[in-house]
Amino acid sequence: MACPFLITLGKVANFSVLYPTLGGITLDMRKRFTKVLSFNEIDQTITVQAGISGPDLEEALNEAPERFGAKRRYTCGHFPQSFEYSCVGGWVVTRGAGQNSTYYGCITDMVLYQRYATPVGDLKTSPYPREATGPNLNQLMMGSEGCYGVLTEVTLKAFRYMPQNRKRFSFIFKNWADARDAAREMMQCEAGNASVFRLSDPEETSLMLHLYNVDDTPLHGLLDIRGYKDMERCLFLGFTDGEKGFSRNVAKNIRKIAKRHGGMSLTSFVTRSWEKGRFTDPYLRDTMMDFGVVTDTLECTVNWSNMLAVHEQVREVCHRLPNTIVTTHMSHCYPQGANLYFIFITKMHDHEEFFRYHRTILDAIQKSGAALSHHHGIGKMFAPWLKGSLGENAYNIIKALKQHFDPTNMMNPGGTLGLDLPEEQVIALDQPLSDQ
Ligand SMILES: Cc1cc2nc3c(=O)[nH]c(=O)nc-3n(C[C@H](O)[C@H](O)[C@H](O)COP(=O)(O)OP(=O)(O)OC[C@H]3O[C@@H](n4cnc5c(N)ncnc54)[C@H](O)[C@@H]3O)c2cc1C
Predict the structure, then answer these.
(1) What is the model's pTM?
(2) Which of 71, 93, 113, 176 is deepest in the core (most CB within 10 A)?
(3) Domain spans in the chain, listed from the N-terminal domain onward
(4) For 327-362, what is each residue's pLDDT tens digit?
(5) What is the CATH number of domain 25-160?
(6) With a 6 A CB cut-off, is 94 part of the ligand 1 pocket?
(7) 17 lines ligand 1 (CB under 6 A)
(8) From the CA of 298, how far away is ligand 1's center (Å)?
(9) CATH node for 163-278
């Protein structure tokens, strides 16, 4: 049964998968746009209709020998936490990132070809691994969040499926600074990347060690004795993928760097616990809401050089609400930076309170100098901040494309990407929250 709080929230915020915001129709791509159109083992690509779900795509690739007569098994490499219920089309138009993105890349690294039905006609991008034929159309269309047209077909890269080569690891560091320095070195040392690469800050570490029952084991006491103190220590976990020797070497290198930064190995036990709930943990959200406990997530991208400042500033704002748990992790990492993912868990009484709090966090993210979103996209809730965040000139490119593809505003009207927001609802970069 749907949660009443969520329904109210959906109606007030004008976001819902059930109702088009301004009337008209809603397309459910999961009904008839779910086919695999072709599989090309020579190019290692798969072409699908946009409504195919994550599990159906992954199953088709895992079963490539049986289904397509392929020599090998393959994987899509894209596993967002919403994997079980999201579709390829949604991944692409919101510029999503799976939990294994540090090795496989985000969806924007995986797409070769897209086909859109737009109000001004059919649009097909070219299917090559790269080209230098003007601005990149594939990238321009990804992130359009349904405002330019309906994505109907996608060609994605396929990766060799070799789960037997996976090497799991987990380490505990004495503090956030040591852990962050270790993560940066792992990403910059050019020895290959882990697939899942996830570092929790002290507050999240405390919660995770509790959830994964480490608190009930002798390890808990050992950590204290060795100086890894609660609410200072940081948990780092993940696993490697790829060819056997590559995967082993990446794991070996991670171990070496972790040790150099004071990391203590917790073996693969914690990683396996995380894996068990990696897609299902969010199901708790609705149950918690039934008890008035609200949780939501906001995330952004930072460079290594401003990570500390963004982490501190955003968390300070989150913690202004008393009795709130605020956990933070990075889980999509690059040589030049990473995402920061904030989760709050708090008691709330109504949607007004939720929106007020949500706005303060978004505003703090924007003013801290981080990218407004690493992979959740913009939608309607983040839309008032987009123009201020990108700058007028850059934002006008998004608007000009909207004008080209959808001059009568048929596609996702009602605030997505801020495209039809009244000017007074647009929030400038330097605008104090009290004026908003
Ligand atoms: C619990 C939870 C965990 C999540 N974890 C992650 C994560 O790990 N990584 C991540 O990247 N995201 C995550 N998300 C966000 C979301 O699931 C993803 O952005 C996902 O890619 C959206 O896909 P969907 O099929 O659910 O799209 P929807 O939510 O149905 O649609 C998203 C937007 O895209 C538009 N759209 C969808 N399909 C098409 C199409 N074919 N053509 C044109 N427009 C279209 C819709 O109109 C809408 O504006 C999470 C969300 C939840 C609720």
Answers:
(1) 0.94
(2) 93
(3) 25-160, 163-278
(4) 999 999 999 999 999 999 999 988 899 999 999 999
(5) 3.30.465.10
(6) yes
(7) yes
(8) 14
(9) 3.30.70.3450
